[in-house]
From TrEMBL, chain A:
<dbReference type="InterPro" id="IPR011851">
    <property type="entry name" value="Na/Pro_symporter"/>
</dbReference>
<keyword id="KW-1003">Cell membrane</keyword>
<keyword id="KW-0406">Ion transport</keyword>
<comment type="function">
    <text>Catalyzes the sodium-dependent uptake of extracellular L-proline.</text>
</comment>
<dbReference type="GO" id="GO:0015824">
    <property type="term" value="P:proline transport"/>
</dbReference>
<dbReference type="InterPro" id="IPR038377">
    <property type="entry name" value="Na/Glc_symporter_sf"/>
</dbReference>
<keyword id="KW-0472">Membrane</keyword>
<feature type="transmembrane region" description="Helical">
    <location>
        <begin position="62"/>
        <end position="87"/>
    </location>
</feature>
<keyword id="KW-0915">Sodium</keyword>
<protein>
    <recommendedName>
        <fullName>Sodium/proline symporter</fullName>
    </recommendedName>
</protein>
<feature type="transmembrane region" description="Helical">
    <location>
        <begin position="391"/>
        <end position="412"/>
    </location>
</feature>
<feature type="transmembrane region" description="Helical">
    <location>
        <begin position="220"/>
        <end position="246"/>
    </location>
</feature>
<keyword id="KW-0813">Transport</keyword>
<comment type="similarity">
    <text>Belongs to the sodium:solute symporter (SSF) (TC 2.A.21) family.</text>
</comment>
<keyword id="KW-0029">Amino-acid transport</keyword>
<dbReference type="InterPro" id="IPR001734">
    <property type="entry name" value="Na/solute_symporter"/>
</dbReference>
<dbReference type="InterPro" id="IPR050277">
    <property type="entry name" value="Sodium:Solute_Symporter"/>
</dbReference>
Length: 486, 37
């Protein structure tokens, strides 16, 4: 098992390091891979980035505890993917290229003609805050997986996982992150299709028998609201469907649209992306339910998939499954590390220290920032304060509410002003944080009030404030001096 | 079995329906793009 797992790690690391050879001389090369990714790379990388360790650890654990009702997430995610791929992706790719935007924060600032960089800095701060929580959750998932499958002590496993991802992301930049995402995505997809089908059809007597067994264990497992009834069930369902609606505001996912090569890549990528989300959501739900039958007594539901793997799989296959769990964790962690680094080392730094950096200096700054951010996320994960499921959903809500409504409004209208955008981002983030601390959070997912607050703030403040004059874009607008990256 | 309709909705109708709808919309978009050219 360990050998198979080490083979997986070696493959990923080699691909990540190899990507360094293909970094071009510009900042666009380091942060966007020269906007040169086709449909497969764009769709699988977006999917693998979107699908974090949460899917194998958090979501499978939730299905283990609450049953088929967690599948309410699927219609929500399908809706979120529709919005992302049909509404956001084509326009953002085009508009991002026109404005020469290198990130979501950069796009907001340039599109609004914000000379003070208020928008770019605010967006970057929100990204950094929520991404650190998100990255910490990925490391927690890694610690749990290594602890249960390889009996590596939780904290040691967590630190080793962080060191590994930072190790490959630091060299090859965005290109290495996308290449490793694609490799990792294919492994995840294979495991999420083959494992549940093999278990249900081969070991549990087919789908009919599978659902009958679940009902005999506990009828709640097949209920509409996971045991909740009336208004509480309605709140649970709205919350579950609502998860997917956070898709359009996730900076690490929409970054893939900025780096897509052309319109055809987005169109063909849409079909791959939709296939991806259906397989991933259904697969992880089935894994949790299978675990309920085969490993009925575990203390922490988030250990269900690792335990299931250990109890039912041949060691070589268990190594591949562990690789898939790690693929999910690493693909998200590396992408977020990249985007958070860009937010701090490029967007904020260049806005505050208004000076020209050479590409060599920028890459050096980025690499050190990456190490710093990785260490902070590792520190938070070591505190082990929240379950993976809770931490991911919290960050997901904060980012979705802060950026989703704003991005769509900015792509399809010209009425958003600088202050409207500022008010929208801040309200989305603040209401998410406040709502989470209220008793209502148990009934309604914070993304929904956060999004409503952001929409209202954008509309009202934009009506009351004037538009900024547009900035002329030029190649120098990124403060880049052409110089070889080494 | 309890909630058989729900099982069909979650595991058959939503996945298959979403996939078919996506393929249809992408092809419609492509045709629209080709016509515009």
């Amino acid at each position: 098992m360990i050998i198979t797992f080490l083979l997986y790690l070696t493959l990923v690391f080699a691909i990540g390091i190899m990507a360094e050879r293909f970094i071009t001389k510009s900042e666009e090369g380091y942060y966007l891979g020269d906007r040169n990714f086709g449909p497969v790379a764009t769709a699988i990388s977006a999917g693998a980035t979107d699908t974090s360790g949460w899917i194998f650890i958090g979501a499978a654990g939730y299905a283990y505890a609450a049953g088929i009702s967690t599948m309410w997430m699927l219609p929500g995610f399908v809706a979120g993917y529709f919005i992302n791929w049909f509404i956001v992706a084509p326009k953002l790719r085009e508009s991002g290229k026109d404005t020469n935007a290198l990130s979501l924060a950069d796009f907001f600032g340039k599109k609004l003609g914000d000379k003070t960089n208020l928008i770019k800095i605010t967006a970057s701060i929100i990204i950094a805050i929520f991404f650190i929580a998100y990255m910490a959750s990925q490391l927690t998932a890694a610690g749990k997986a290594l602890d249960s499958i390889l009996s590596i002590q939780f904290n040691t496993g967590l630190v080793l996982s962080a060191a590994f991802v930072i190790g490959y992301a630091i060299f090859g930049g965005y290109r290495s992150v996308v290449w490793t995402d694609v490799t990792q995505g294919i492994i995840m997809l294979a495991v999420l299709i083959i494992f549940p089908l093999y278990m249900i059809l081969g070991q549990l007597g087919g789908f009919g028998e599978f659902f009958k067994t679940l009902q005999s264990i506990d009828p709640i497992l097949l209920s509409t609201g996971g045991g909740s009834t009336g208004a509480a069930a309605f709140g649970v369902i709205v919350g579950l469907v609502g998860f997917g609606l956070g898709e359009p505001g996730q900076p690490h996912i929409v970054q893939r649209f900025l780096s897509a090569k052309d319109e055809a890549s987005v169109k063909s990528g849409t079909i791959i992306a939709m296939f991806w989300v259906i397989v991933v959501m259904t697969g992880s739900n089935l894994l949790g339910l299978i675990g309920r039958i085969l490993v009925p007594s575990i203390n922490d539901p988030e250990y269900v998939f690792p335990n299931l793997t250990l109890d039912t799989m041949h060691p070589i296959l268990a190594g591949i499954v562990l690789g898939a769990i790690f693929a999910a964790i690493q693909s998200t962690f590396s992408s977020q590390l990249m985007v958070a680094t860009q937010a701090l080392a490029s967007d904020i730094l260049k806005s505050v220290v208004k000076k020209d950096f050479t590409n060599k200096q920028l890459v050096k700054i980025s690499r050190w920032t990456m190490i710093g951010l990785g260490l902070v996320a590792t520190g938070i994960a070591l505190m082990n304060i929240e379950a993976v499921f809770t931490l991911v959903l919290y960050a997901w809500a904060g980012l979705g509410a802060s950026f989703g409504p704003l991005l769509i409004m900015m792509l399809y209208s010209n009425f958003v002003t600088k202050w409207g955008a500022f008010a929208g981002m801040v309200s989305g983030a603040v209401i998410t944080i406040i709502w989470k601390e209220t008793p209502y959070a148990a009934y309604l997912y914070e993304l929904i009030p956060g999004t409503i607050a952001a929409i209202l703030a954008i509309v009202i403040v934009s009506k009351l404030t004037p538009h900024q004059p547009k900035i002329e874009q030029s190649p120098e607008s990124n403060h880049i001096k052409e110089q070889e990256v080494t | 079995m309890q909630n058989e309709a729900l099982i069909w909705f979650f595991y058959v109708i939503t996945p298959v329906g979403s996939m078919l709808l996506t393929i249809l919309l992408v092809n419609l978009n492509k045709r629209k793009g080709d016509k515009a050219k």
